[in-house]
Structures are given as structure tokens and as C-alpha cells.
Amino acid sequence: xxxxxxxxxxxxxxxxxxxxxxxxxxxxxxxxxxxxxxxxxxxxxxxxxxxxxxxxxxxxxxxxxxxxxxxxxxxxxxxxxxxxxxxxxxxxxxxxxxxxxxxxxxxxxxxxxxxxx
Length: 117
Description:
Elements: E1 2-7, E2 10-13, E3 18-26, E4 31-39, E5 46-52, E6 57-59, E7 67-72, E8 77-82, E9 91-99, E10 104-107, E11 111-116
Parallel strand pairs: 2-11
Antiparallel strand pairs: 1-3, 3-8, 4-5, 4-9, 5-6, 7-8, 9-10, 9-11
């Protein structure tokens, strides 16, 4: 009933920028929070950035000052602006949405981000 779809990934040179988008669709009346996670080769999935419906944000220490998360609540969409990208940012980036009703969490299928040195 709820689906989450990411877009905007790709191949970029170190120091470059990418902007990821994530849209949640379906019978959604209220989203508590949306966030970005990533999973690098051989690593476990980790939180990158998160934003609540009220606008509060959290960032992983590794991306602070480089990444910015923002939202458009009317469109149930969240964005991740990634600047000064590093090879270690290479990963599959997953979007997560927590729906207020029932406090259920939904995941997208991921979008690949590859940063070359």
C-alpha cells in the first residue's frame, strides 16, 4: 500500500555533487520521518541523514558539512544534496519512511552512488 522510490544516483568524480530524491506514495496521511541510509560493499547499512515532519535533522558524523537533507511534506518527498563527495561515500543509498499511523517503516530498493578517485 505504501511504496518508496529513490532516484538520482550515478557515477561522479571525487569532489563532485549529486542530489538524491525519494518519494513515498500510497495511502499516506502522515509521515513521521524520512531518512537516507547507505550500504557500502562489505559493510552493514548505516544511517546517513534523517529528517522529521517537523524539520529536525540528524546526520552521520562522516557526512556532516557535506550532505544536506531536506523535505517537501506536501509531496511526501525527501532530498539528499551530496557535495564534496569522497570515494568512501560509494554505496547503495536507501530511503526510509516511517508512517505515523501504526509507526511502520518502509524501504525503497536503493539507488547506486559511485564516487571515483
